[in-house]
Amino acid sequence: MTRTAPGTEPQTRTPGVAISILLLFGFLAFVFIFAAISGKITAANLGGWYAGLAKPALTPADWVFPVVWNFLYLLIAISGWLVWRTAGGFTAAGPAMALFAAQMMFNFAWSVLFFGLHSLGAAVIEVLFLVLAITATIVAFWRISALAAALLLPYLAWTLFATYLTAAVWLLNR
Prior knowledge:
Elements lengths: L16 H30 L17 H24 L6 H23 L3 H23 L3 H6 L1 H20 L2
């Protein structure tokens, strides 16, 4: 067993350029696969069921949602990648990456509950957990990369708006 003197423990290294670029594409793929599956669930319910729901006055036009979400998914992927890169790998960024994965699962679950199962009340509860997961991710990311945390702020803002929309749709259609 090799021992090191106190204060000379190995330092976390920044991943090389090739690995870094590969992992950037990996983060993009991870996030956009979730987005694509969520999009299929959503698209299957837009014309009939969703179109027939009463919606609050601040509901954006349907075309706004995919534009905003694609931009946000790009920021989410870059944010996760920055934390991985800044921390020096998945092991060093472990708790932050666990929160990152959790918020992605909550994001996906909202689409399943709202659009897939038409369970508006459950979607209201779930989106509150999503907001908490995003907030926890931002806090964890901030400890590693302020830029990565800042990139998630538009996502949190939009999700807070989505919380309003979800609750309002539920209340208007009970």
